[in-house]
């Protein structure tokens, strides 16, 4: 079987739930980067207590690594970023640095980057870095995340309420909240391809042409 390799960076509560959702598609092979809880996750897994996805003790993704450098050994269809948005402290390009090197970009095609962070303007630096690495327009999706989930215990239990929902759109640099964009056929195809994986894993997703406006509304929610 040809696998769709997916990398998820940030294995907190949000990351765990979306790693679970993406792993439900038989063709996917999900790699997660678990730093603070690597030892526990790699040996015992995560106990997911979800009112939406069920009670799943000892769940593990296909591969658990402790660093982005360790994960930079293959091409990925999607790279999801579910870390906290701290651009002034730990910018996303710094977190993903091993995937943005000249060596990596020459060996592997660019993934579609998916930012699962609710902050405003968090896409800008990654877009610029990816464009520089691959010398081409990046494929970058951004999402507003609506979820009730917490990492508890010794960072080895995730408790989730009855819903998880992504509002997802294509990031366009320079677009203002008040602009009224329309998705091109190519952008619609990009969004629908990602949405198929989310829906197949019993996740809810809404695709929109104006993600900056939706994220602005989410930050006021």
UniProtKB/TrEMBL annotation:
One cellular component term from this protein's GO annotations in UniProt: cytoplasm
Record domain Ketopantoate reductase N-terminal: where: 6-167
Membrane-traversing stretches: 6-23
Keywords: Membrane, Transmembrane, Transmembrane helix
Key word Disulfide bond present: no
Domain of life of the source: Eukaryota
Keyword Transmembrane helix recorded: yes
Database matches in Pfam families: ApbA
Protein name, per record: Ketopantoate reductase N-terminal domain-containing protein
């Amino acid at each position: 079987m040809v696998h769709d390799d997916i990398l998820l960076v940030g294995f907190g509560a949000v990351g765990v739930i979306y790693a679970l959702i993406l792993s439900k598609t038989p063709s996917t092979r999900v790699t997660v980067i678990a730093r603070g809880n690597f030892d526990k996750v790699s040996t015992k897994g995560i106990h997911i207590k979800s009112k939406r996805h069920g009670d799943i003790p000892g769940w593990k993704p296909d591969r658990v690594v402790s660093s982005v450098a360790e994960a930079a050994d293959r091409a990925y269809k999607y790279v999801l970023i579910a870390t906290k948005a701290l651009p002034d402290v730990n910018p996303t390009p710094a977190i993903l640095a091993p995937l943005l090197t000249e060596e990596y970009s020459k060996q592997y095609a660019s993934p579609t980057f998916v930012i699962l962070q609710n902050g405003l303007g968090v896409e800008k630096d990654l877009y610029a870095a990816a464009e520089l690495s691959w010398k081409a327009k990046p494929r970058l999706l951004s999402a507003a995340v609506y979820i009730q989930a917490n990492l508890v215990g010794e960072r080895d239990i995730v408790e989730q309420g009855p819903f998880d929902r992504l509002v997802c759109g294509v990031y366009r640099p320079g677009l203002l909240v008040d602009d009224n964009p329309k998705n091109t056929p190519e952008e619609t195809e990009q969004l629908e391809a990602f949405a198929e994986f989310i829906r197949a894993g019993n996740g809810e997703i809404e695709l929109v042409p104006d993600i900056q406006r939706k994220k602005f509304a989410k930050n006021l929610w």
